[in-house]
Write a structure and sequence with these properties.
The complex is a heterodimer. In chain A, about 25% of the residues lie in helices and about 35% in strands. By secondary structure, chain A is α/β, with parallel strands linked by helices. The chains are: A alpha/beta, B alpha/beta. Chains A and B meet through helix 8 and helix 9 of A and helix 2, strand 7 and helix 3 of B.
Chain lengths: ~475, ~250
């Protein structure tokens, strides 16, 4: 380990945190403790990522790691402020709300409960005790600890997170909305871990909101493992709106069996440093994955999207579309890797990353990457970086719309290609409102939650452009 | 006088495209500007509408007696100048409804008026859609996205109908249109004609003028209006071809 690495304060704290967690868990968690021990060894071998690693070449976690974070290892009491979070909802979105505070499941009576049709929702930590067979069958099978330092650290140190189980052929009726809030008084290092199991033929909508409701610094390292059984369907959203002092590393490790359908849409509105890693393995014929994202960044924000789609079996399809608008000194990274293995014939995989850069100081590093070992496939990839289209600007202005508004309209339209794919109407309206507010510079960190329910924008039509 | 262009010289990247154009348009008139390709017809339209990238080296453009050279494109539009584009731009993600509502309200704001109510706006949409024989399907879609050539041109006339400009300049609106679409476009223009507005139709072919009868026809050639006359000039031009102009000019 280099001297630079030794200067990371968290490295000194990790052994201490690890001991505390082991002491808390006791004997019931013997299986997990074995995984933790392997993961910690992996982490110690890998160390924190740095710029010399190919996958971190354009994202430097050094600054984010330079603070002396604390980790909330004591028992969780629900902070008063979360009462407000509980009330937060998207207008007209009838969702089932789950609250995580510092990555941990917040509950009033039961840490885990069974809902309609045998759907189980609750604390992952509780699930280890109540449903050990179910959890152990999948936990740690999809996240990679031997190569990925943050995932290894998460396995070694996570305290809790969300557990969801949807039984065979059950479609969970409401969108499950996960609101993860961090930061109250001190700088925190959050290790959140979620496990989502969709049995064959089941369906789920999961909205994962990451939010900070003050300007306290935090570092969140979240890992979500998801397994989609045969013909299961998951509609997944990440809504990210954290303060400029905060760092969020959000990993999705997904395994898809045959004919399963994944749609994952990341809406990144604000954050100091956000890195989303999305890994999905298409591990059965006929599986499909849509991985979409839109990111809006300004000031010194840094947004990194890493997508790895592993076409392991024949006749699978994937579609990747990421769009970004960068202002000021903002920087974005896109790394899209599609692997088509030898047996994955008849694969169709498409990938695109488009960016609008508003200043000459903003920067995007885009790396679309195809790695193909099968010979009968259709794949394409592309990346574009541009300014706003002058002829479109003139066209809009010629109709009497001012230059500022014309620019706003074009940026909004650019992002809308991704946001329009949101399948829940009320959520799409809300997100499109937030994109507009963000583009106008009005969207600051809400003191309640990412969805800004306290100030819904009024509109008469689908959107009210006159306010743009 | 609505529009008065005096000795207009325009260059792009140092190359002179318009070399002393004179044109006068009064309210209630329909003018046709004809001429072979590459003689500056579209440049003239773009310069009147305020597109950037053109340098006016000499001359004046007066609109309602005011010099508009320094006016931003949107202000000219707010003052009542409309340009029907030869190649309308696609704007994915912005519905026609929102686009028109924003445009109308910005124009109203410029004139110190309150925004149009939703009810009034929808009523106007319905009325103008009928007028240009445009289906609801098109107005519900994003601006020009995936429209056929004919649909795009019809959509230009629909926007003109919605915005009710004082001066409409239609740049090669007939290009790429089949006879049915041509008739619909021309009908729209004819129905929108009043004593208070004027239309300048830019066209390469005489065909459109079978449907839109101009009061005046001007022939633009090598950056100048070389010939002006009544509607019969278009027919003569059709009969004799542009070579006739060319030979006349050279002599």
């Amino acid at each position: 380990m280099s001297t630079e690495m030794n200067s990371i304060p968290a490295l000194k704290s990790i052994p201490k945190w690890y001991k505390t967690i082991l002491a808390k868990e006791g004997r019931a968690f013997a299986g997990l403790q074995n995984l933790r021990s392997v993961a910690l060894d992996d982490f110690n071998r890998l160390g924190f990522p740095h710029k010399k690693l190919e996958k971190w070449r354009n994202t430097d976690p050094k600054t984010a790691l330079s603070f002396d974070y604390s980790m909330a290892t004591d028992d969780l009491r629900m902070p008063e402020i979360l009462n407000e979070v509980f009330e937060c909802e998207v207008h007209e979105l009838d969702s089932f709300i789950i609250n995580l505070y510092k990555g941990r499941f917040v509950y009033k009576d039961n840490p885990i409960y069974t809902l309609e049709n045998g759907v189980i929702v609750g604390s992952l930590s509780a699930a280890f005790e109540v449903y050990p067979d179910l959890v152990n069958k999948h936990f740690g099978k999809y996240a990679i600890t031997e190569k990925n330092a943050f995932q290894a650290l998460n396995t070694a140190l996570f305290l809790d997170g969300l557990f969801v189980y949807v039984p065979k052929n059950v479609a969970f009726s409401k969108p499950l909305q996960l609101i993860n809030a961090v930061g109250t008084t001190e700088d925190v290092f959050v290790q959140n871990r979620n496990l989502i199991i969709l049995e064959p033929g089941s369906e789920l909508t999961l909205i994962q909101c990451d939010d900070s409701y003050n300007y306290k610094r935090s570092l969140t390292n979240s890992v979500t493992e998801i397994v989609l059984g045969a013909n299961a369907s998951l509609d997944h959203y990440r809504l990210q709106n954290i303060n400029n002092n905060s760092t969020l590393i959000s990993s999705l490790a997904i395994e898809q069996e045959c004919d399963s359908r994944l749609s994952s849409n990341s809406i990144i509105l604000n954050g100091g440093l956000i890195r989303n890693e999305t890994y999905t393995k298409l591990n059965g014929t006929g599986a499909h994955a849509d991985v979409l994202g839109v990111y809006l960044a300004d000031k010194n924000q840094h947004i990194d999207n890493q997508v790895f789609i592993d076409h392991a079996m024949p006749n699978c399809t994937s579609n990747e579309q990421f769009k970004g608008i960068l202002d000021d000194y903002a920087r974005a990274v896109f790394n899209g890797h599609i692997l088509v293995r030898k047996d994955a014939q008849k694969t169709e995989a498409f990938q695109n990353n488009a960016n609008i850069i508003l200043t000459d100081k903003a920067m995007i590093n885009s790396k679309p990457f195809l790695e193909i070992y099968a010979d009968d496939v259709k794949c394409s990839h592309g990346a574009t970086v541009g300014q706003l289209d002058d002829s479109a600007l003139f066209y809009i202005r010629q109709r009497g719309i001012s230059e500022d508004n014309a620019r706003m309209l074009l940026m909004y339209a650019f992002a809308a290609e991704v946001t329009s794919e949101i399948r829940i109407d009320s959520l799409r309206d809300r997100i499109e409102d937030m994109v507009k507010k963000r583009l106008r510079g009005e969207l600051s960190i809400c003191d309640q939650c990412v969805l800004q329910c306290s100030s819904p924008e009024k509109y008469n039509f689908e959107i009210d452009m006159s306010k743009i | 006088m609505l529009l008065q262009i005096k000795n207009l010289h325009v260059s792009i990247n140092g190359r002179e495209i318009l070399k002393g154009v004179n044109l006068e348009v009064n309210k209630g008139e329909v003018h046709a500007i004809m001429g072979p390709n590459g003689t500056g017809k579209s440049t003239l339209a773009a310069v009147i509408a305020g597109k950037e990238g053109y340098e006016i080296t000499q001359g004046e453009i007066l609109y309602n007696g005011k010099d508009i050279q320094e006016m931003a494109a949107e202000v000219r539009a707010q003052e009542g100048i409309f340009l029907g584009f030869q190649y309308p731009v696609e704007i994915p993600g912005v519905s026609m409804t929102n686009f028109m509502r924003t445009a109308i309200n910005e124009i109203r704001k410029y004139h110190g008026e309150e925004p149009m109510s939703a009810k009034e706006f929808l009523a106007r949409m319905a009325e103008k859609k009928d007028l240009v024989e445009i289906t609801s399907k098109l107005t519900n879609r994003s601006v020009n996205e995936g429209f056929s050539g004919g649909e795009k041109k019809k959509n230009e006339i629909f926007q003109m109908a919605m915005l009710e400009p004082q001066l409409a300049i239609l740049d090669e609106t007939d290009s790429g249109l089949d006879i049915d679409a041509l008739r619909i476009v021309a009908n729209g223009v004819n129905k929108l004609k009043t004593n208070e507005n004027a239309t300048v139709v830019i066209t390469h072919y005489q065909r459109l003028l079978d449907y839109i009868v101009p009061d005046f026809v001007h022939v633009l050639f090598e950056g100048k209006v070389v010939l002006s006359g009544g509607k019969e000039l278009a027919l003569e031009l059709e009969e004799k071809g542009y070579d006739w102009i060319k030979n006349n000019t050279e002599r």
